[in-house]
Write a structure and sequence with these properties.
The complex is a heterotrimer of chains A (388), B (368) and C (293). Chain A is an alpha/beta fold. Chain A has helices at 2-19, 45-61, 85-97, 109-121, 150-163, 178-195, 214-223, 237-246, 262-268, 289-304, 313-332, 337-345; strands spanning 31-38, 64-67, 70-80, 102-104, 126-128, 143-145, 169-174, 200-206, 227-229, 253-255, 276-279, 348-351, 354-357, 368-375, 378-386. In chain A, the strands form three sheets. Chain A has a seven-stranded mixed sheet, with helices on both faces. In chain A, β7 (169-174), α6 (178-195) and β8 (200-206) form a beta-alpha-beta unit. Chain B is an all-alpha fold and 368 residues long. The longest helix of chain B is centred in the N-terminal third of the chain and has 30 residues, at 31-60. In chain B, strands 1-2 form a two-stranded antiparallel ribbon. Chain B folds into two domains: 25-253, no CATH class; 340-368. Helices cover 69% and strands 2% of the residues of chain B. Chain C has 293 residues and is mainly alpha-helical. Chain C has helices at 3-34, 41-58, 61-84, 92-114, 125-128, 140-162, 164-174, 176-181, 186-212, 221-234, 239-258, 265-279, and strands spanning 119-120, 130-133, 136-139, 214-215. Chain C has a two-stranded antiparallel sheet. The chains are: A alpha/beta (388), B mainly alpha (368), C mainly alpha (293). The B-C interface holds B 58, 62, 64, 127, 130-131, 134-138, 140-142, 144-146, 148-149, 152-153, 155-158, 212, 257, 261, 264-265, 268, 272, 310-313, 315-316, 318-320, 322-323, 326-327, 330 and C 35, 37, 82-83, 86-87, 90, 92-94, 96-98, 100-102, 104-105, 108-109, 111-112, 115-116, 221, 225, 228-229, 232, 263-264, 266-267, 269-271, 273-274, 277-278, 281, 291, 293.
Chain lengths: 388, 368, 293
């Protein structure tokens, strides 16, 4: 009896291994596959889902692409990388086996870095939507991205703080998280450069999954900085903001692009008022025609999907990444990875978040960030900041 | 019950080995198409090493350690730091730079793997020797805690120039060929089998059955426990090193407690005290994790959306299956038995006779 | 460090310690009776957080709180009945693995049902009132957490020492088989133990999450582990020990973070555990137990 079950299980296992490999036949001449490599569960599951919504919406708006005069239907192949590097590797391999021509993703730089080597090895170009860490594209010929980078973002926030009269700053980052630590380090550099060495008077770290920030905040409070910069995931940000306010810290708290998310306002409530963040997109200021039609169309799409009617910046970036992918495929006139990669290098289009073209590393030439704050329970556009 | 003679068994074993090699060669030749399948097999082989190492400790000696993730981290970081190409290091350590002593230190993969294993074993010795004197529950919680400490130390900003702290390591060169992982896994598991079948292995089992009786028989408890713990740590470290090469980029978050739990569940599914069980378990669970992915996508049949299918459902199914095994099928797939051709033969024999009984008319077909 | 900062840190530490203590008691009671590390205890605590979110959506807080307490007790007892009871005669390792399995299941279930996104914990206006004493600033919950902890522990000790069920509990933890022979209904006593442990976890959860405001599927994992360490520190099986262990951990962790070693605040917990096991394996208040052959 035992052996029987064992053998059946072994058999099932062998089938499973090959179930994933046996695809790839069918009417391939009319379908082009675009991989969607995003976290739907895990730490970044929420943000990843918003990005996927943007990509899905783009797919309903532009369901086909012309290659060599033939119309191809674009099929999205979604995988969940679970915000986890270990999962990311197999998730990426699964996309490769399904014969995707381009990959879009991911929310969260760590998983993008992990999967980047696999995309490059399989010669499939990838377009990052909101992964801002420099390491994603650096040294990887096949990775492009449509958003700005952390060094830029860190400088923008430091600039903004100094322009608003801050003389001293405290920086709080998450240990073991490349996004948070990286952005924090770039901010420290920029702030010390602009405000004179030693302007960053306090640097604190917290652990992943930590929920009690009172101790580090008490330290920060004792130093009494003019501004606090705390780039973090949307899981930790509301906790940090609330606990800071409860401890009586009144300095403005600033964060990075992840903070533009309704969850923060929902969870931090009234304490979220006055936080400052930089982001990629603002729905009140449609920069382009594409943006105007996107805003009306996507709001309906959000409602259909039972979401709030606020457009998250990552959805806009997901949309733009999809447009860029289509543009690259059109320019390459091919479904082959290397051809699309070469074509992407020269692509130039106007997306929702502004004009997109790539530099030699594969990063979008973006020199503008939107600074927002929270007022009366909603995100409010403050200003755009450009550097250089 | 009929038995096979030795020659038949040898032939079958060789045939199986040849079949596995042919399969690998076929996959290698069609790498682009089967990259997903290859990745699953490679990961399974890596998990098989650590699962067997854990089983040696838990299933054969009765020591419950939950520190696998930490020891894997030691192996992984050692291998990663020593094999990242020297010219890529400045871009990997892009924030703080690399420590001078390590800037040019480089080892071939095999040497780095052994060093990684040795380091893990050394650290394992440091922690194990004091704690092994205690009862096994405490060993579980102490090793679990220790693996968290290792993770915290790796991510510490004070070690930025060695482990690259929060930023993780990338650009780890891939295996030379797809065979490497399987050869290394085979060798590691072979060594562990030899140890388990030696007189030391018998002492381990005696300790598992009854510590007091084992001691009365003249088995030095402390020496044997320490030895099996250190050996287990060595192979855990090696498999961590392989995991780093397989993943190509690592950071401290890779080695969370969840990783240990995954390995534990492999061992439990395969059967505590069965090496072949652990190997089967690692292939099964790794494959199932991928195969069950379809649970995560909305399923629409004839325009009607089946309600349960959405993101996260896969892991729920997975944990339910594992609970069911623990509760109703405690011995796992293999119990404490090992795979043998005789066993398989008996199994097929029984299966056939059952089929024959059910469909007497078709009996002849089976003998064609 | 000036005195107000120091006091503020102390307040944080004591409040954290109080919540830890309430969870640690659940571990210590279950371990005392079943010799089982109930890995799922931290996740019961997390589920209590979610129960509160849903209860408060349809009821005022004074009805929601009892609902949460009852729901958590049911969950705790249910887990014992389904996952631990069938394994009563199985090797210890099997029960431990089953406990890990339950923890894994609850985390995955929470991710599936409530998504990985953090959910805002409802504000109970009474508890969230912010006090300012000189330069110190804290919400009421921070101040009353240690008080509630002390009161509950006192009541619990009274019950264990003087009620019938409490005496049965002590008998079972002293000697499982003999207690059974004496006519104590073991299963009932074990259920009561899980009920009390879950109740305290639910109270701890209300205090802890009111202070921290967000629940997500993994919010129980690390506090769970730490509270087990707290239980070991105090001597497993001893309720005052668990309480003391909770406070030691809460204060120690806060002190480390305050000194700028936040990297090692988690590690601290486990270093303390290993040191304790080396120096005095029975914990501060534990009794010496000899292994029977």
């Amino acid at each position: 009896m035992k052996k029987k079950t064992a053998l059946i299980l072994v058999f099932a296992m062998i089938l499973m291994v090959f179930a994933g490999c046996s695809s790839g036949t069918g009417d391939e001449e009319k379908v082009i596959k675009i991989g969607v490599f995003e976290p739907l569960t895990g730490e970044n599951g929420g943000g990843g889902f918003q990005e996927v919504l943007g990509i899905r919406y783009a797919n309903t708006v532009y369901p086909t692409v012309e290659i060599n005069g033939e119309t191809y239907t674009v099929e999205l192949v979604e995988v969940d990388n679970k915000s986890d590097k270990t999962e990311a590797v197999t998730a990426a391999q699964s996309l490769m086996s399904q014969g995707v021509s381009v990959v879009i993703g991911s929310y969260g730089s760590g998983v993008s870095i992990a999967a980047g080597e696999i995309f490059a090895e399989s010669q499939v170009p990838a377009i990052g939507a909101s992964c801002t860490n420099p390491q994603v594209t650096d040294g990887n010929d096949y990775y492009y991205r449509v958003c700005f980078l952390d060094p830029f973002q860190g400088t923008v926030m430091a600039n903004y703080a100094i322009q608003n009269g801050a003389k001293t700053a405290a920086v709080i980052t998450q240990l073991g998280d490349d996004y948070s630590s990286g952005l924090g380090a770039f901010f420290v550099d920029a702030f010390n450069r602009l405000g004179g060495a030693g302007s960053v008077i306090s640097q604190e770290q917290f652990q992943t999954n930590q929920t009690d920030f009172k101790a580090i905040l008490t330290n920060v409070k004792a130093k009494n900085p003019d501004v606090i910069f705390a780039p973090s995931s949307i899981t930790t940000a509301p906790l940090l903001i609330q606990q800071a306010r409860e401890l009586g810290i009144t300095s403005p708290i600033m964060g990075g692009d992840t903070w533009e998310n309704a969850t923060i306002i929902e969870n931090a409530g009234a304490h979220a008022e006055g936080i400052v963040l930089s982001t990629f997109f603002d729905e009140a200021e449609p920069a382009t025609d594409e943006a105007a039609s996107f805003i009306t169309g996507f709001k309906e799409y959000l409602v259909e999907n039972g979401q709030d009617e606020i457009i998250p910046a990552v959805s806009a970036l997901g949309y733009d990444a999809y447009l860029t992918a289509l543009e690259g495929i059109k320019a390459a006139n091919s479904t082959e990875g290397p051809a699309i990669r070469d074509a992407l290098a020269g692509v130039s289009l106007v997306g929702v978040t502004g004009a997109i073209s790539f530099n030699e590393i594969g990063d979008a030439n973006k020199d503008m960030a939107f600074i927002k704050t929270v007022e009366n329970g909603a995100f409010k556009f403050l200003m755009t900041v450009s550097v250089e | 019950m009929m038995k096979m003679n030795k020659r038949t068994k040898l032939i079958l074993t060789i045939a199986l080995a040849v079949a596995v090699m042919l399969l690998l060669a076929y996959l290698d030749a069609n790498r682009a198409q089967y990259s997903y399948g290859i990745a699953i097999l490679q990961r399974s082989a890596i998990y098989a090493i650590v699962a067997v190492a854990m089983n040696m400790l838990t299933g054969f000696t009765g020591l419950f350690s939950l520190g696998q993730a930490g020891f894997m981290a030691i192996g992984a970081y050692t291998v990663a730091i020593l094999t990242i190409p020297v010219e890529d290091r400045p871009s990997v350590y892009y924030i703080n730079g690399i420590a001078d002593a390590l800037a040019n230190a480089s080892l071939p993969l095999w040497a780095a793997l052994i060093l990684g294993g040795l380091l893990a074993a050394f650290v394992g010795g440091l922690i194990g020797i004091p704690v092994l004197r205690l009862k096994s529950d405490y060993l579980a919680i102490a090793t679990l805690g220790f693996s968290e400490i290792i993770r915290a130390v790796i991510a510490a900003p004070q070690l930025d120039r060695i482990t690259n702290g929060s930023y993780g390591l990338k650009s780890i060169p891939n295996f030379g060929s797809i065979y490497d992982v399987f050869i290394i896994a085979f060798l590691c598991i072979l060594v562990m089998i030899l140890i388990i079948n030696s007189s030391y292995g018998r002492a381990f089992k005696a300790i598992r059955e009854d510590e007091v009786a084992a001691e009365a028989m003249g088995i030095n408890l402390f020496k044997h426990k320490g030895m099996v713990f250190i050996i287990s740590c060595f192979f855990t470290g090696v498999s961590g090193g392989l995991l780093a090469v397989f993943m190509r980029s690592i950071d401290s978050k890779t080695f969370q407690v969840m990783l240990t739990y995954d390995i534990l569940l492999i061992v439990v599914l395969g059967g505590l005290g069965s090496i072949t069980g652990s190997i089967i378990g690692s292939f099964l669970i790794t494959a199932a994790r991928e195969w069950l992915r379809f649970f995560d996508n909305p399923l629409i049949i004839a325009g009607f959306q089946i309600p349960l299918f959405r993101s996260g459902f896969r892991m729920v199914i997975f944990s339910l299956v594992l609970m069911a095994i623990v509760l109703y099928y405690r011995k796992g797939i293999m119990g404490s038995k090992e795979f043998s051709w005789d066993g398989l033969y008996r199994f097929i024999h029984r299966l056939l006779s059952r089929v024959r009984r059910k469909t007497p008319g078709k009996e002849a077909n089976h003998h064609e | 460090m000036d005195i107000s900062v120091f006091l503020q840190h102390c307040l944080t530490g004591i409040s954290l310690g109080g919540a830890y203590a309430l969870i640690a008691i659940g571990y210590t009671m279950v371990y005392g009776i079943l010799r089982l590390i109930n890995f799922a205890h931290g996740d019961i605590f997390m589920m209590a957080g979610y129960f509160m979110i849903f209860a408060i959506a349809s009821f005022p807080w004074y009805i929601a709180i009892p609902i949460v307490l009852i729901a958590t007790i049911i969950l705790g007892v249910l887990i014992e009945r389904v996952a631990y009871k069938p394994l009563r005669n199985a090797p210890r390792m099997s029960i431990m693995i089953s406990a890990i399995g339950v923890s894994y299941l609850l985390q995955n279930l929470a991710t599936y049902l409530f998504t990985a996104l953090p959910r805002g914990y409802p504000t109970i206006p009474l508890l969230k009132k912010i006090f300012e004493i000189g330069p110190l600033s804290a919400s009421l919950v921070t101040l009353i957490t240690p008080v509630i902890t002390l009161v509950l522990v006192y009541v619990l000790i009274l019950l264990i020492n003087h009620s019938k069920a409490g005496m049965a509990m002590r008998a079972v933890s002293k000697d499982f088989e003999t207690a059974q022979l004496m006519g104590i209904r073991i299963n009932q006593i074990i259920s009561i133990t899980f009920a009390v442990g879950s109740l305290l976890a639910a109270v701890g959860s209300i205090l802890y999450f009111t202070d921290r405001m967000t629940v997500f599927p993994f919010s129980g994992a690390l506090p769970g582990l730490k509270c087990f360490v707290a239980a070991v520190l105090g001597g497993i099986g001893s309720i005052p020990g668990a309480m003391l262990g909770g406070f030691v951990l809460g204060l120690g962790e806060t002190a480390l973070v305050a000194m700028g070693y936040s990297t090692f605040s988690d590690a601290f917990t486990f270093v303390l555990l290993i040191l304790m096991l080396l120096i005095k394996p029975t914990g501060l208040f534990g009794e010496k137990v000899t292994d029977k052959v």
